[in-house]
Amino acid sequence: MLSELYGYAGRILRVDLSKRSVKIEELDRKLIRGFLGGRGFNVKRLYDEVPKGVDPLSPENKLLFATGPIAGTGFPIGTRLNVTAKSPQTGLLGDSNVGGHFAAEMKYCGFDQIILEGKSDRPVYVYVHDGSVEFMDAQGLWGLTISEAYDAIRKELRDWRVQIALIGPAAENYVKFAGIFFNLHRPAARTGLGAVMASKNVKALVVRGDGYVEVAEPDEFEEFVREVEEAVYSHEQYWPRRVMGTSRILMAANRLGFLPADHFTKSVVDYAYQVSGERLAVEYNVKNRSCFSCILPCSRFYVIKRGKFAGLYGEGPEYEPLAGFTVRIGNRDLDAALKAISMVNDLGMDAITTSEVISWAMELYERGLLDEGETGGLKLKWGDMDTVFELIDMIAYRRGFGDLLADGVAKAAKKLGKGAEIALHVKGLELIQADPRGLKGYGLGFAVASRGADHLRSEPFIELSDDPRIGQLLFGEAEATMRLGVRGKGKLVAYYENWCAVVDSLEVCKNIAENMEILPFDKMAKLIEIVVGMKTCASDMMRIGERIVNIERAYIVRQGVRRRDDVLPRRFLKEPIAEGPSMGHVIELEVMLDEYYKERGWDPQTGIPTAEKLHELGLHEVVEDLRRNGVELRPALD
Amino acid sequence: MLSELYGYAGRILRVDLSKRSVKIEELDRKLIRGFLGGRGFNVKRLYDEVPKGVDPLSPENKLLFATGPIAGTGFPIGTRLNVTAKSPQTGLLGDSNVGGHFAAEMKYCGFDQIILEGKSDRPVYVYVHDGSVEFMDAQGLWGLTISEAYDAIRKELRDWRVQIALIGPAAENYVKFAGIFFNLHRPAARTGLGAVMASKNVKALVVRGDGYVEVAEPDEFEEFVREVEEAVYSHEQYWPRRVMGTSRILMAANRLGFLPADHFTKSVVDYAYQVSGERLAVEYNVKNRSCFSCILPCSRFYVIKRGKFAGLYGEGPEYEPLAGFTVRIGNRDLDAALKAISMVNDLGMDAITTSEVISWAMELYERGLLDEGETGGLKLKWGDMDTVFELIDMIAYRRGFGDLLADGVAKAAKKLGKGAEIALHVKGLELIQADPRGLKGYGLGFAVASRGADHLRSEPFIELSDDPRIGQLLFGEAEATMRLGVRGKGKLVAYYENWCAVVDSLEVCKNIAENMEILPFDKMAKLIEIVVGMKTCASDMMRIGERIVNIERAYIVRQGVRRRDDVLPRRFLKEPIAEGPSMGHVIELEVMLDEYYKERGWDPQTGIPTAEKLHELGLHEVVEDLRRNGVELRPALD
Fold first, then answer.
1. Fewest CB atoms within 10 A around its CB: which of A523, B27, B307, B342?
2. In Å, how far from its chain's centre is CA A251?
3. Closest chain B CA to residue A239
4. Which bin fits A408, alpha (ψ -120 to 50), beta or left (φ > 0)?
5. Is a pLDDT exceeding 70 seen at residue B633?
6. Stretch B20-25: mean pLDDT, rounded?
């Protein structure tokens, strides 16, 4: 037996693919106190073990899977997992968080973290079960799509309860935004982690455990769970979320005017209902599913009942792919959008980035800046779904014009020598489906997020309340919680970044915890006490969040990121929204950035954390390391 | 054949029970122009045909069933029906509105209105079908409960598609708040219409039609319907309403502090979730059902799966019975509440009034003002559900202390010689489950509503938005749309009274139309044009609403109602709410009343409409009639 199972604190499994050897490491409680779990564990290890200069697709990169102390306890708002590596898409921090059932199963194998390092000499999948690790031959699986490989592995193992993280053809072709897919339709999609897995010749990581997770104070845990259940079940957002998941955001975004329609040239459309989560719920959905131990089964399965795509079924879609393959590319046909999303999933790509590269090319084409000679004969008209289907396939297999897009929008624009101004990314990661001109806190979040243009690092959804009283109360600035406000956004984003870092390290559902106010910092502390048996408090939790945000910043600073990289595409800074409820707005980024750095204790000139801040957070070795790497640290803010 | 079917405009079926004869009357288009349908038709006829002095339980009273021009067209927000008579409970206007499938079926029989008059010499049920009316023997049905009689009639007629309006034992025993029950669990519950039906020796009215309803402009109708469907499906309230119906109000009322807990002595409780619609949805509900042609199936069926009442199932409950048999009587046991509601339904009583008479008696008992000598040995403690079950039965069969309560709380207090101050009614009709101190517009609505303490005459739900901008915009007073505001409430309530009167006459669902903003006055006008083929406009619609409100007022003025009767129980005027979000509030009724009468063009001294206002509305004959009845009309306001 490789590991004996015990309590909340699992162990760490280190898999050397080059040597086909494994090593079990104990989990240091100091690491829990400093970084809690999940995202915190991963970034700490990435910082320590993947130095500057490593090629993301080389054996020296490491692919880290980690979950947190709550995973597998049955806590009722899910069990999640972070996957982390140096990103081949951005060259910076690669990190993605995923739900489903994998994390609990991994914990039941006895592991809080699995590290894949080195490179296998031929395709394998790694099978962790019954206290052993097997390197299974995957030569026959190479080239299979997600659903094909999923079926093949389950058939080979003759076990329907295995949890599988796997890659598709796009990853094998080193598409820079290929993801790792869990439970078929739940990808760790962003920052190109699938390509990292492919570079190690690993088709899948499969786990199956029979262990359990001990809780330090079972009676108090039961009481805590009961309170959370009541809060979730009685929350007014319970049923909308259960019925529509995040897909309901599309109608809301249309009401408030922050849709990314026609590649962010329109913020409202007149056909929102036709492509909405509401319509999916009424006409397409057939059942619901939850992540492990969650009481809010917000994932839905759809079936197309008639028409050209009759019989197509699948899980989801969530808001991001839904908006990406409808409004963002000018498509009004919900069936065709489901087909496109299904293709993107099965080929194993990030739907957000895929929708950006396609809609970016469409805008160029529609504006006459790209011709059929360059696209290989494709006419990239808004909403032409047959072309979109073709293009998705061309990207995944790097054929023709698809090869150009397969590196992401930033590199595509560079290679093409045009379109850089409308390439909608930050630090090489493409923008999600929300126009930051209509959601300014989100906009600031995109600019500063440690992995690029993304909402999941801060997600200050409270600004949607448009309630000045809350902003005044929480941040001393009424505008902080008004979506079109500016002042106070620095504080707002810093606060929510810290909070998100802790939730991503606890590895529970951020959406439920945040929107239903389940886990403010004091409750997190109580939960850790109950589960881990470790005395702690709300300010410890805040400090953990801040520490994680700072080490992530240090990681990208070490790669060369500075304030000049904390930007947004020109469109959002200079072109006011033309119509709808956010009409006339651009985003006042520099003012917000100044406030943000000040709140963070980072040098506003460079965007580098001060030595004082890093020492205050106990990150002494990071100070040393950055200095060794030639980064000039300002001692302190005045 | 009694009637040939044609278009929107059905006919009127007049059934003389004394003579066992029937008469068909044509529908005058002028009546549509003046009163539209449903509630408007009924009150106009009641005013004309049931003069002052008629004993509500005598053959001279008339029982009117009417639906509206939209009924049976397939319009997607339901098809409703008004039942109207002089009320045996209040001696004033008896009227109740009900959903389900009866109205459409009645329309398919060719009738917009059915009038039951006189009195049968022995129990019958009236069966309208295939162009004929049959007086069916009901001696074997007398004494049966709602569910028993329902089954017996369907069995006898060998037709599962008949629509049945029927009464239970409570009505037969002339319980003053006995209702008429449709589709088993959908009562026209308020104001004692069941007792009127019983007094005519009619156990049921049964309809079964094979006709159809023509629409003047089918293509435009289809387009209009498509727009409504999209608006409903895409509304953010669609799914919460679909999953929980009105039962979700309980948690909201607890959040905002207007629950009627322990007979309105507490406005918040700590056990709300335990008795909530949210919990019903998660733990009890098994399927949904809609009213005829409605696309929002908000009615739910529950099953109790374990415990003492395992196996009990039924439809609903809506918020009113749910709160009435939980918080109002201090009961925390949801299973027991479902049992009590099921009993009240099956015996055929109004759940609101039943919960008031019981909670009123409980408050007297708990305060030591009522002893076991007076109750016949019953210990009326908060939440003692075994006693509640017993008492429900005693009321329905008028046994012992139940006989006292069976006349309603006003008469019970009078007979008992105490408790009048805490008898929570207006004009003899008991208050619903919302504390008007926390919802002041509703409070004004209770005071002035034409049938007594009731929200359905105005339902100014917009004050729940607490948004001063809306009030300023719509009524020139910010407080109008703030639930704890005072100024502007007169305008708010008058406006919504007019609107509700029109919707009740169109006979579509007020909840959907109002909360989802489906039918503002201009849309109503358009709908009438499309369906009826009659040119009209928004101001015509407003005028129809105002006309109905005024003739209803004239009806109760003729019975002696004056400003002194537009009151609220002392508790709401003098005792501030002790805790929670509405803490410290009483209701400032007189200020609001002054504003209301002014807005209405009624004499603020007496509360009587001015002759000018009645003439302006074309109600010339009402002016004459009131004067004949000795009512002094002020010519006009200054």
1. B307
2. 22
3. B240
4. left
5. yes
6. 96
SS3 A148: helix
Domain boundary assignment for chain A: 11-208, 235-411, 436-607
When scoring B227, B228, B233 by the number of chain A Cβ atoms within 10 A, the one with the most, hence best to mutate, is B233
Q: What is the DSSP string of A448-506?
A: H-TTSS-STTT--GGGGG--HHHHHHHHS-GGGGSTT--TTHHHHHHHHHHHHHHHHHH
Say how many CB pairs under 8 Å bridge A and B.
43
> Where does A436-607 sit in CATH, by number?
1.10.599.10
pLDDT for B381: 98
Structural tokens at position B161: 């598609």
Report chain B's terminal Cα–Cα distance, integer Å: 56
Contact B207, B433 (CB under 8 A): no
What is the tens place of the pLDDT at every residue in B197-248? 999 999 999 999 999 898 999 999 999 999 999 999 999 899 999 999 999 9
Please give the biggest Cα pair distance in chain B: 69
pLDDT for res B8: 53
In 3D space, the residue among B394, B182, B384, B361 whose CA is nearest the CA of residue B289 turns out to be: B182
DSSP string, B446-470: HHH-TTSS-STTT--GGGGG--HHH
The pLDDT assigned to A175 comes to 98
What is residue B123's predicted lDDT score, i.e. its pLDDT? 98
Q: For residue B129, what is the enclosing H or E element? A: strand B124-129
B614: pLDDT strictly greater than 60? yes
Q: Answer yes or no: are the C-beta atoms of B553 and B450 closer than 8 Å.
A: yes
**Contact residues on chain A for B251, CB-CB shorter than 8 A:** 234, 236
pLDDT at B29: 86
pLDDT range class, residue A5, cuts 50, 70, 90? very low
Residue A465 sits at the vertex; the CA angle it makes with A459 and A471, to the nearest 5 degrees, is 80
From B141, B10, B127, select the one nearest B507 (Cα to Cα): B10
| Domains A235-411 and A436-607 are alike in CATH topology | no
Q: Measured in Å, how far apart are chain A's first and last C-alpha atoms?
A: 56
Residues of A in contact with B282 (CB under 8 A): 233
Q: Determine the pLDDT at residue A185.
A: 86
Cβ–Cβ gap A239/B239 under 8 Å: yes
| CB < 8 Å to B272, chain A | 234
The domain B11-208 having CATH identifier 3.20.20.70: the answer here is no
Per CB-CB distance under 8 Å, the chain A contacts of B236 are 240, 248, 251-252
Specify the length of chain B in residues: 638
Give me the half-sphere count of Cα atoms (radius 13 Å) on the Cβ side of residue B207.
23
**A290 in B contact zone (CB under 8 Å):** no
Residues from chain A that touch B278, judged by Cβ atoms under 8 A, are 233-234, 238
**If you average pLDDT over every residue of chain B, what do you get?**
95
- Between residues 211 and 230 of chain A, which touch chain B (CB distance below 8 Å)? 230
Interface check for B244 against chain A (CB to CB < 8 A): the answer is yes
The CA–CA distances, whole Å, from A223 to A11, A68, A75, A220, B193 equal: 28, 21, 11, 5, 49
**What pTM was estimated for this model as a whole?**
0.89
If phi > 0 it is left, if psi is from -120 to 50 it is alpha, else beta; for residue B191 that is: left
Residue A9's pLDDT band (cuts 50, 70, 90): low
Rounded mean pLDDT, A146-169: 96
pLDDT tens digits, A179-214: 999 988 899 999 999 999 999 999 999 999 999 898
Question: A240 to chain B, minimum CA–CA distance in Å?
Answer: 6
CATH number for the domain formed by residue range(s) B235-411: 1.10.569.10
Over residues A386-413, mean pLDDT: 98
Instruction: Among B230, B240, B281, select the one facing A236 at the smallest CB separation.
Output: B240
- Asked if residues B443 and B427 have their Cβ atoms less than 8 Å apart, the reply is no
Chain segment B380-416, per-residue pLDDT in tens: 999 999 999 999 999 999 999 999 999 999 999 999 9
